[in-house]
Design goal:
Helix content is 71%, strand content 0%. The radius of gyration is 19 Å and the shape is globular. By secondary structure, the chain is mostly helical.
Length: 265
């Protein structure tokens, strides 16, 4: 375990160096996760004459500010990396390394998270302190639960994308599945609208799907909109989805690697 930790440190440090060399590309990726700020402007215009459902203007600002932060800290693009490496045969090189390829992909993503955390954590804290209308409840327990839920959100997004990316072993246009996943994430994750504002049938569906736990759940925690039993219940559901997606990753990898026959492989 210690050797694996050291290897992760080395790979993550290398990833930070690479990303700093491609600052413009990183800036584009960061801007691509600014969709919550667009939706905040939309909902603020609707809340000018009073609350929308249970959300005031201040609630919308807090919700989408935290959504922006969660999106930044859980951004994943491994499906596109896998698609390219499988189709072009670059996965061969990674298969020769002593670590399974997923660890190399993860370490590069962790490097990105380290940079984004340094950039955006102080900004979010400063805005929360300077703008009293922002509705956030950063109690010690909520902060602990938020960090745990944020970690779970990243794990869910990563395992889901990695699993979808592996369909490139069998299909040349596997990224279409990623597009479908993305649309479901926007709706049932809480990007388009807070889940409490969805029609009742969609609320019930969203509660059990994994998308809520990739975005809305950590935000709900830090806004103080969930009781402790509701948080613990959500943690259990999130953990079950993590286990399920981990099982899917192991199954798809074991079968997909046998079919690996990209050009140049």
């Amino acid at each position: 375990m210690r050797k694996l930790f050291v290897k992760y440190l080395v790979l993550t440090r290398r990833g930070i160096t690479v990303q700093l060399e491609y600052r413009m590309a990183m800036a584009i990726w960061i801007l691509s996760a600014s969709f919550p700020l667009v939706m905040m402007a939309v909902w603020l215009s609707l809340a000018q004459n009073g609350p929308v459902g249970d959300f005031s203007a201040g609630d919308f600002v807090g919700y989408y500010l935290l959504s922006f932060y969660v999106r930044q800290m859980t951004a994943v693009w491994v499906a596109w990396e896998l698609d390219y490496d499988i189709r072009h045969g670059d996965l061969n090189t990674k298969l020769l390394h002593p670590l399974q390829p997923i660890h190399e992909y993860i370490s590069f993503n962790l490097a990105d998270k380290a940079i984004r955390g340094i950039l955006f954590t102080p900004v979010v804290i400063a805005l929360a302190l300077l703008l009293p209308q922002i509705q956030i409840a950063p109690t010690p327990s909520n902060l602990v639960f938020f960090v745990l839920a944020l970690t779970g959100a990243w794990i869910l997004r990563y395992l889901a994308q990695f699993s979808l990316g592996m369909f490139t072993f069998w299909f040349s246009q596997a990224l279409v599945l990623t597009d479908v996943f993305w649309m479901l994430y926007l709706l049932f994750g809480g990007s388009v609208a807070p889940l409490e504002l969805l029609p009742e049938p969609l609320q019930t569906i969203a509660f059990y799907l994994p998308f809520r736990f990739m975005l809305s759940f950590p935000v709900e925690i830090l806004m103080g909109r969930l009781t402790t039993p509701e948080i613990l219940n959500g943690m259990v559901i999130s953990a079950l989805w993590c286990l399920g997606l981990f099982g899917a990753y192991r199954l798809l990898w074991a079968r997909g690697i046998r079919h690996f026959g990209a050009f140049g492989a």
